[in-house]
Amino acid sequence: MSFSLNGKTAIVTGSANGVGLAIARHFADQGAHVMLADLDEGRLKREVAQFPDHGENTRFFAGDLREKLTVANLMSATVDAFDRIDILVNAIRQCSRADPLDAQDDAVETLLQQNLMASLRVTQAAAKRMIAQGESADTKAHSVGAIVNLTSIAARRSQPELMAYSISTAALDQMTRSMAVALAPKRIRVNAVAIGSVMSANLKDQMREHEDYRDSILKHTPLGRIGAATEAAEAVQFLASDAAGFVTGQIVTVDGGRTLIDPVSAPAH
């Protein structure tokens, strides 16, 4: 099987910065046609202008993907530009801190809408297009589409101040598994990459706010370093490619081993 993305069309949401942008760049470097989608139109325009094949193999779409009409317009814009949709990468990830005991705080609802519902709506719309392509094409390919969700190890960790983010990413993990089963008969694979110790926009912000945070991450990461966004992008490439043709419903963790160890050290004998 091939890891190649050459000639395939991919939508990458949340791609104005951070890991989403790294994924979009990596896919473009691998020969894919890429539609970058995000809310930040100014940043999208600046970033896409720096792609080597700007105007030929890359486009951008700006809009609020929590809105159903915006999602429909994204599908239309992608098909108009590249004729088809082969891959969807849901890389929308918003993180915020909140007091879990504050009944007035709407962080959980906000992040469920941003991180879960936006990805669900885009997944449903893209899957319908992939199914239609599979039915109209004269092909016996094992897979007619691949969907990869970008999630987080926060789904498996308990940090009260990040409760809203943890809940939204845990829900995204379950969406991945449920959609994988639902779409398997239609030959569409659905997987996720859960990132932890990977340099993202959120992680940069946290390290700026807390001087000792970087040292704490390194201490609790067996590989002893923070991963590059491109390393997450390569994991996404594998799941999106034909090389993962028999892989679906899986959450692949890219965190340098951070979730493997207990932060509480055993007492000395």
- Helices, by number, come to 8
Using the coordinates above, name the CATH class: Alpha Beta
Number of domains as seen in the coordinates: 1
Structural class: alpha/beta
How many strands appear in the DSSP assignment? 7
Largest sheet: 7 strands, parallel
Instruction: Strand order, main sheet: write it out.
Output: 3-2-1-4-5-6-7
Mean pLDDT: 90
Shape assignment: globular
Under the CATH scheme, the architecture is 3-Layer(aba) Sandwich
CATH topology: Rossmann fold
Report low-confidence residues grouped into runs of 5 or more: none
Give the SSE layout:
Elements: E1 9-13, H1 18-29, E2 33-38, H2 41-48, E3 58-62, H3 68-82, E4 87-90, H4 107-136, E5 145-152, H5 163-183, E6 188-195, H6 201-209, H7 213-219, H8 229-240, E7 251-254
Parallel strand pairs: 1-2, 1-4, 2-3, 4-5, 5-6, 6-7
Helix pairs in contact: 1-8, 3-4, 4-5
Family: Belongs to the short-chain dehydrogenases/reductases (SDR) family.
GO molecular function, one term: oxidoreductase activity
InterPro entries: NAD(P)-bd_dom_sf, SDR_fam
Note down, in words, how this protein is organized.
This protein has 269 residues and is of the alpha/beta class. It has one domain (9-197, 229-256): Rossmann fold. Helix content is 42%, strand content 15%. The chain has helices at 18-29, 41-48, 68-82, 107-136, 163-183, 201-209, 213-219, 229-240, and strands at residues 9-13, 33-38, 58-62, 87-90, 145-152, 188-195, 251-254. It has a seven-stranded parallel beta sheet, sandwiched between helices. The longest helix is centred in the middle third of the chain and has 30 residues, at 107-136. The chain is globular and about 55 Å long. The protein starts with 8 loop residues before the first strand and ends in a 15-residue tail after the last strand. It comes from Rhabdonatronobacter sediminivivens. InterPro entries: NAD(P)-bd_dom_sf (IPR036291), SDR_fam (IPR002347). GO terms for molecular function: oxidoreductase activity. Pfam families: adh_short_C2. Keywords: Oxidoreductase.
